[in-house]
Amino acid sequence: MFMRKVFVFLLVSLFIVIGLSWSVYATPEDYYKATGKRIEKFNEAPMLAELVKQGKLPPVEQRLPKEPLVVVPEESVGQYGGTWRRVWKGPSDRWGIPRINQASLVFWDKNGEKFVPGVAKSWDILENGKVYVFYLREGMKWSDGHPYTSEDILFWVDDILGNDELTPAKPAWYRLLDRVEAPDPYTVKFVFKQPYALFLLQVANRGFTGSPKHFLKQFHPNYTPMEEIEKKMVEGVHNTWVDLFNDKSDFLESLDLPVLTPWKPVTDPTEQFYILERNPYFWAVDIEGNQLPYIDRIRHEYVQSSEVIMLKAISGEIDMQWRHIGLLGPGPGVLPLLLENAKSGGYRVLRWKTDNGSVSMVMLNISDPPDPVLGEVFRDVRFRQALSLAINREEINEILFNGLAEPRQASFVSGSPYYDPEWEKAYAEYDPDRANKLLDEMGLKWDSRHEYRLLPDGRPLRFTIQVTGQTHVDVWTMVKEYWKQIGVRVEIENLERSLYDSRLSAHDFDAQAWVMDRASQPLVDPLWIIPGSTEYASAWYIGWADWAGSYLEGEESLKEYLQQEDAIVPPEGIKETLEKLLDVWKEIQNTSDPEKIKELMKEVTKIHRENLWMIGTVGEDISPAIVKNNFKNVPEELVTATPFFSPWNAMPIQFYIEQK
């Protein structure tokens, strides 16, 4: 009963996909009960059959778990073989890899409406959401053939997350955890201190499959003497055992790391081609018993610019890609170019939908600004309201997005269970006269020529917006001209992603622009709305993230934080507002009633629309993907969202390349 209640508040009603769709069954027996069809035998890719013939691999029946996951393909049973050609921007682009290559105890279904089995074949939710029990697949193995058991999950929780040297900043869910138990090798139980209705959202988003204990324990002092670990450390590379452990556990760079994912890296990510090759022990099959994935290899070609990516796309050199085409790409303005070249390039263009609350929003550094005088101006909500009112969103939509997006404030999308129409419209109309009046009220005077406004200390009111990617450059270049009408001067600085991130971490920015994703299922990852609720932080509260995290942990943690010399605490007025927001979040985490959660989320959206910490432009946009004509089983329609790790919710393990 409780499981059904949990699902009620997860539904995203805006995006309804009809027609064919991939699906899964927990086991072959479940597939038989539902369809009356039995999977009589298991088959394998020719490249693996050859290794079996050579005695280098055991037969497929011995590599699969006793009860593998069964995947029903999107359109048809596929063909084995081929190399999936993609592009990426090198190691700094690492988070694109898990979006096509991952393992999780449970997955989202294609539409983000419910959870489906993954590594866990089933699960129970007990004691009103205080206890979660997952049942693993007997006989399942890591990519090196070693058994996968509940011990691997215990190792991850106790020895990695629980180790303060390896994980000094704990995930929010971990702070609520009482203990993890493993009653047997194929059962794992998470017990929380109090009901935690949001846990399955975390599991589907973050995997929770553990780490390969048999491999990583040789680098961990709980299992291996330090003198033995030190012998493995490389001088000039590893200063501590933590450096060594992190190197060996890096999913991108550690080629020796056993994995549960469908493909495993076989080349160094710094090479021109970063190649993933099929995992011979992957734990899923299709409806005819063919071990998945269908595709042998994924090849990522290193490119430095978005322009080169687009040239490769329209010339047909990419087999299937959404990242850097739609997501992080040039924007919907590129759609005509893609369509114009589709026939000659031998590809089709998919118009996937996003859950973006704003394609590009700006966040002012109000928490720890490099310029204190500018920071005081930023902290006045009237300034943020004025900036928002001075943006012509309708014009941005027509010029940059071909009218395919929605002019709106940075807020939850209209299909979210927590959609707030007042937040969507808050200060989102184009009214430069009203914006000027607000700035006048603040006492921000014009210069003698009436060209720009002045800061309280007499300097020109100007600041820099840091961005990464052409879409953000285009949007804020337009906004730059709008803001001249209200006397605010800005510069746009387009940074490489790793530099953008390092500036954020160092609080070294006036303002940063990013996409407000996660706007359909915000409870999965409340990065944008709740300070301190995740191990990451967004630009508007980055300086207060540690304070907020300590506040959420409790009085003792907060007291300890406040004793630090470098503690950054919100000023009076803002502090009380944030405490109220954090108190609401605490209540949400401890609530199992979906209707109560909806009421509490109304308080969250009210606080945000009144404070406007994020200033949006347009959202709910179309996000194109390209697919070669011989590349099959890719959904024509898809909701793309960070919580779903899109395009993982297209289920890449059932993609296939039609062989000639």
Automatic annotation (TrEMBL):
It comes from the Bacteria. It comes from Thermotoga maritima (strain ATCC 43589 / DSM 3109 / JCM 10099 / NBRC 100826 / MSB8). InterPro entries: Peptide/Ni-bd, SBP_5, SBP_5_CS, SBP_5_dom. Keywords: Signal. GO terms for cellular component: ATP-binding cassette (ABC) transporter complex; periplasmic space. GO terms for biological process: peptide transport. It holds the Pfam family SBP_bac_5. This is Oligopeptide ABC transporter, periplasmic oligopeptide-binding protein. CDD domains: PBP2_NikA_DppA_OppA_like_4.
